């Protein structure tokens, strides 16, 4: 018995024929790792053409203006390119390793995974979103001010990914997108860095190198902090209004449902908390309080405030407490990533015990949370690898010397604008507050005096450039980790933030011109 076979054109085949044409029209931005490795390769190529150079250094390792001289170049080859991320992770004699930052990111993943398992944080977040459903602008303003406060106080930067993971479920529950959370974290922390009212890691070090007190220009920086923070709040609120009214206009709208599954808030219904959940929230909140107190540089803000140093020293000589707590405690105000990692690990275990989970459940949760942020943790050494290649290739001093030659004969208003442009470009490659200050401030402070610009204004320019650069450069850890966690391409981030960057840059130029005129 024969059958009649009807051959019909396959729709998939027709689509396949059209796909190459569509692919030609649509450019797909490489992922974060490809971009960062590409930058490493580009810098390595530059080391073959940019002459090697060096400056004479002070006893503290700061460059001295006018002492630039050429040295034998050190072109970076394939070995150096592939070793750069490894050195970036482990560190070297001149560059601190990123492993402590990556470990902190992994442990924060465990911390948040444990809180997610309790359900307490989801319920609390749902309560917040319900309470502020009609006050979206107020909520955004509060979060931006908190981020700006951290940025201006202690240079919040690498830990931005932690705040992003905290805020993103709230933003999604309000009908916004992951980009809103990134804007709050990146613009918030970096607007604080941009003004740096009391940040000892930027304005403190830069002022010291420039030969002035960190108190000079503090009132000006405080005004800058207030005005720039208000401007950022306005910008983010406008974006939030647009996304709220037209969700399809979000660049991340295509993965809205995936984001809701990945960053869930509590489901509708009962928002009550069990006694165990309440205790878990108490531990969670206390962890953040201890973290903030540990990071605030108390003695830098007030040299007479030495309570924590004295208390730690007292513990170290008290027999029972010394054996119980240990002799190597780091006082509050001197904490950094190792101490943060320890605190978060202890808090994760404490929450598990409060919830009465068994040991296997606690350890499995810890590992699962860390695994979720492995890809984000690997971004940090790649970004640090760029600085490794620049320093090993000895081209950083040569780039600084070119800037020195450009700025030497400009009038004050032109000087501050060109200095901001050049400083921002340099900061895009060296987004480290201490590294940028040590490499450049000795030179730039001297140049500012030749141009008739006060040194404290040059310190402000340095802070502005650092804050602006870390909003957009692929070397910025906060940008690359937050966009990676949100599954947002770096190209989409640049398209979104570039107009905002332009507005903030113009604002900084106007602010500097007013300072020079007054």
From TrEMBL:
It is found in: Cell membrane. It is a multi-pass membrane protein. It holds the Pfam family DcuC. Residues 1-22 are annotated as: Disordered. InterPro entries: C4_dicarb_anaerob_car-like (IPR018385), DASS-Related_Transporters (IPR051679). Keywords: Cell membrane, Membrane, Transmembrane, Transmembrane helix. GO terms for cellular component: plasma membrane. The chain crosses the membrane at residues 32-50, 93-115, 136-157, 163-186, 193-212, 218-240, 280-298, 335-354, 366-389, 409-430, 442-465, 497-517. It comes from the Bacteria. This is YfcC family protein.
